[in-house]
Each structure stands twice: as structure tokens, then as C-alpha cells.
Amino acid sequence: MPQIRLNGCQFHYTDQGSGPPLLLLHGLGSSERDWEYQIPALTPHYRVLCLDSRGHGQSEKGGAGYSIALFAADCLAFIEALKLEKPHIVGLSMGGMIAFQLAVNSPQIPASLTMVNSAPEVIPRKPKEYWMAGKRLFFAHVLPMRAIAGGLGKLLFPKPEQQHHRDTFQARWNENHRASYLASLRAIVGWGVSAQLDRIACPVLVVSADQDYTPVEQKREYVSRLGDARLEVVDDSRHATPVDQPEAFNALLLSFLQEVDAERTLTHEVDPA
């Protein structure tokens, strides 16, 4: 599998298919393996690259100095090193936060953004939000990874027929490097770029599960503050929408990407300069 050294860290990535570049960014505690249901649908149309964020998957582990800004800088370095011109970027949960940060810092880079069950900030503002953030941080620091994996597996895939997803998720989650996982979680809490959303210059698709951690209305609110943006809600889905509803998600994503590509082609033909 390909490896690349960027910003003092060794990264693992995959590179499959051909066509316009499409970069997939996974969520907290996950890896490029979580896109397994998207790869067959996307590679006939796109050059699909999946990057393991530092501290995740087969990338180098650590745990010191992690931040969403650092993860975004890693992604930018990856895009530049592989000479990816105007990549589409898809981010799930933490991956969406990384994509938000990259697009705010370097609005000229992405051709489009697709945010899946994500947000432009994770800043507690109400007593209940402080309580939830504190509880999550506390239990993440005191429980073993196996216990965290078991609880999250049941939360994400509660149905009897989802046993395979539960087993797969729990096994993968249990492989996490504890210090890196905790450092990544701490990087999320308190992060935000909500005040800079007007810097995002590309089309944005926001995908929300109907039963995500955060309500659909929260996504609707930030979509209203973006320029060229739309919200799509996937029914009967939780936080891992690309896994629990892959066909619906893939159809939404491909339709959006092909629409953006068609518009870019038309614009180029009208104004080749």
C-alpha cells in the first residue's frame, strides 16, 4: 500500500480508479477501510484517494499536538504532493471538519465539498452541550478501547440485521492507538470555523442521517450560511451513513459530483481563460 511522508509524519493512503480526483476523509477512530462501500461505485468515474489521518489506520501514531488545523495542513500537503488539481473532497464526521478547515484556509483548492454527518464547529454553548462534551471526554479517558468500541457499535448499528457491521466496526475501533484517539478527540472539542464559512468558494453538499447525533435542523442552519450549498437527508440512518445506507448515499454523492463536473466543463467551454 502507498506510503508518503508529510509534515514530519508517515501516512498511508490508497489510490484507485481514474478521472477527476476525489479525496475521501474518514471520521474519528476510523480509517480508509470505512469507505469500502463507496469505492466500487466511485472508481469507474473518479480517481479515488483515501487518506488515513495521522494517528489513524496505518498512518504513523503519536498523540501530541493534534488539532483539526494540523489534520487539514496534512491534507493540503497530500493534495500538493500528489499534484491533485481541484479535487472533490468528501468528509465524514471528523473528516468533514478537516475539509471545512481546509476549505476555509485554502478556498481555491476544492472543486466541491461533501460533508457527511459533520459540522463547522464543536463548541459547547449550552449547559447540556457542556455536559455531553464533558461526559464523552471523561468516558473516553477512563474506559478501555474495547468498551468504547462495544458501546459505539451498538449505538451506530442497533438493528439485529446489522450484526456484521457491529462486529466489523468493533474490531476495527478496538485497533485504535489509544493516545492518538484521545488526542484526536480533544482536537475536535472546542474547534470551529463557523465565523469563516463565507470563505468557502465551491459547491457544498451536506448529507445528514435522519438519526444522526446532531439534529437535521442544525445542519440546515449552517447550510443557510453557505453560498452554493444544499442539504440532503438520508432516512433510516445513523452516524455512519456511508455504511448503513450505502446505496442511497452513493447515489446522492455521484449525482452531486457529476452535476459539479458538468457545470465546471460548461463554464470552461464558455470562458476557457
TrEMBL record:
Transmembrane segments: none annotated. Residues 22-251 form the AB hydrolase-1 domain. Pfam families: Abhydrolase_6. Keywords: Hydrolase. GO terms for molecular function: hydrolase activity. The keyword Hydrolase applies. The keyword Protein transport does not apply. This is Alpha/beta hydrolase. It comes from Halopseudomonas sabulinigri.
